[in-house]
């Protein structure tokens, strides 16, 4: 999935799937015995919670133009 603006060198390493917001706290509903909300942390499956991706190198096979 790509955003409305193309990646630049400034933001090329930010994960395009989560846009850098790699993890979120999610309440499961209900509370524990101490009255605290039951919360889990969900990580972005694309970057595994890091918020960054390695820059994708263009493959030389993509550069070939059919003549
Ligand atoms: Zn991500």
Itemize the secondary structure elements and their pairings.
Elements: E1 23-31, E2 37-43, H1 60-63
Antiparallel strand pairs: 1-2
Number of helices: 1
How much is the radius of gyration in Å? 19 Å
| Morphology | rod-shaped
Q: What's the β-strand tally?
A: 2
Would you write up a description of this structure?
There is one protein chain. With 67 residues, this protein is mainly β. It has a domain at 12-54. The protein has one helix spanning 60-63, and strands spanning 23-31, 37-43. A two-stranded antiparallel sheet has the order 1-2. 1% of the residues are buried.
Provide a short characterization of the protein structure:
This protein is mainly beta. Helix content is 6%, strand content 24%. Strand 1 and strand 2 form a beta hairpin.
Output the keywords:
binds zinc ion; 2 strands; two-stranded antiparallel ribbon; mainly beta; 67 residues; rod-shaped; single chain; 6% helix
């Amino acid at each position: 999935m790509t955003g409305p603006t193309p990646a630049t060198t400034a933001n090329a390493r930010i994960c395009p799937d989560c846009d850098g917001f790699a993890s979120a706290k999610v309440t499961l509903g209900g509370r524990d015995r101490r009255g605290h909300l039951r919360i889990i942390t969900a990580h972005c499956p694309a970057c595994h919670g890091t918020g960054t991706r390695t820059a994708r190198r263009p493959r030389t096979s993509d550069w070939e133009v059919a003549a």
